[in-house]
Design brief:
363 residues, alpha+beta, Double Stranded RNA Binding Domain, 6-stranded mixed beta sheet, 5-stranded mixed barrel, 7 helices, globular
Length: 363
């Protein structure tokens, strides 16, 4: 049956919300200053700033009259050396551009270009690796998309067990990490009810308007929930747990990524971001992809140069089980999935043996 009994949105009959250039009123001058600083510093700065405001109305024959206005803004900046041999990227997600600091982003990019002045070639292999929040977000968003209960019960995913069971209740991470979604998370607010444009294993149009509640997917390292529609919950006997349009990983320490770099003993790699992520094996959630816009070598707490790019082969589920340190959770923009999923908050993760499976060309 269609959802019913949900109180109507008081603004259901109002016109759709609109954004405009005024959202950039304070941001645009600061961005202009950042471009000027980049030019004076011998850097080429490129970028893209976007803001949209989407109004969604849900009306059904059972009386639903719901509305949600979703602001969504992104900023991506890319700095290059004049000869185009060095490149660095930074991105931010925002609701209104009031929390975006172009000067700080330009300073971050300038530092990364300075690191890249020394080039070091490394072979493929397993390296201690510091994954920044954007890379962690890209990996765990794919994990969330792959965590449908029906597929797990039917034995098709990394969350399946032999005989038709699931790994619910299993300890996935030794660190006390909690992966959760909450439509009311400050700064990451999303629709408080189901909005489904089509039906599949992860969502159902028959659930449109179903109220959403904060949901822990992993709690203190233990698998707590798999995504379900009302229909798949009935088939599997699991609680109803629809997907929510944000994702947070919490429970790490208070160190920033910079502090985690400084605390590194021996040799490690520091990534900027990941891209071209594709699934290799759903049974293990093995993913492959490439590093991009800067991989840096850390030796005894100091970045000593830039190394070549790599192709990686890793499963986010395995990474959680092997992570030796998690930093401070902060809002981040996924590089790979930023066109579809922007509301994320993640810590940096230290992985003792990240699998760089082959050397990749390009910047």
């Amino acid at each position: 049956p269609l959802v019913s009994g949900v109180p109507a949105s008081p603004d259901f009959t109002d016109a759709p919300a609109e954004t405009g250039s005024e959202v950039f009123a304070d941001f645009a001058p600061a961005l202009g200053d950042a471009f000027a600083r980049a030019r004076s510093g011998g850097r080429e700065l490129y970028g893209f700033a976007n803001h949209e405001l989407t109004s969604t109305y849900v009306g059904t024959s059972t009386g639903l009259r719901l509305r949600h206005d979703q602001p969504n803004g992104t900023l991506e900046l890319n700095a290059k050396s004049p000869d185009r041999t060095r490149s660095a990227w930074a991105g931010r997600a925002t609701r209104d551009f009031k929390d975006v600091d172009p000067a700080a982003m330009d300073a971050e990019l300038a530092q990364r270009l300075r690191w890249a002045e020394r080039r070091i070639e490394l072979p493929a292999g397993r390296y201690e690796t510091l994954l920044p929040p954007t890379a962690v977000a890209d990996l765990l968003i794919y994990q969330l998309w792959s965590s449908t209960a029906r597929d797990a019960v039917e034995g098709r995913t990394v969350f399946s067990t032999p005989g038709g069971g699931t790994r619910l209740g299993e300890q996935l991470a030794p660190l006390p990490l909690t992966l959760r979604s909450d439509p009311h998370a400050p700064g990451l607010e999303s629709a408080p009810f189901v909005i489904a444009h089509s039906s599949g294993d992860s969502g159902s149009v028959f659930d449109n308007g179903l109220p959403l509640a904060p949901t822990d997917w992993i709690r203190d390292g233990k698998l707590e929930r798999l995504t379900t529609t009302r229909h798949s919950a009935g088939l599997t006997g699991l609680p109803v747990a629809p997907g929510i349009d944000n994702l947070l990983l919490e429970g790490g320490g208070e160190k920033s990524l910079e502090e985690m770099v400084a605390a590194t003993t021996g040799r490690a790699l520091l990534l900027t971001c990941l891209w071209y992520i594709r699934e290799v094996d759903p049974a293990t959630l093995l993913l492959t992809g490439l590093t991009r816009d800067g991989v840096y070598l850390v030796e005894d707490g100091e970045v000593v140069g830039e190394v070549n790019n790599f192709r990686f082969n890793e499963s986010p589920v395995d990474l959680l089980s092997r992570a030796s340190e998690a930093g401070r959770t902060e809002k981040t923009l996924p590089r790979e999935w930023g066109d579809w999923f922007t509301r994320a908050a993640m810590p940096a993760l230290r992985i003792p043996d990240f699998n760089m499976s082959s050397v990749s060309l390009g910047v």
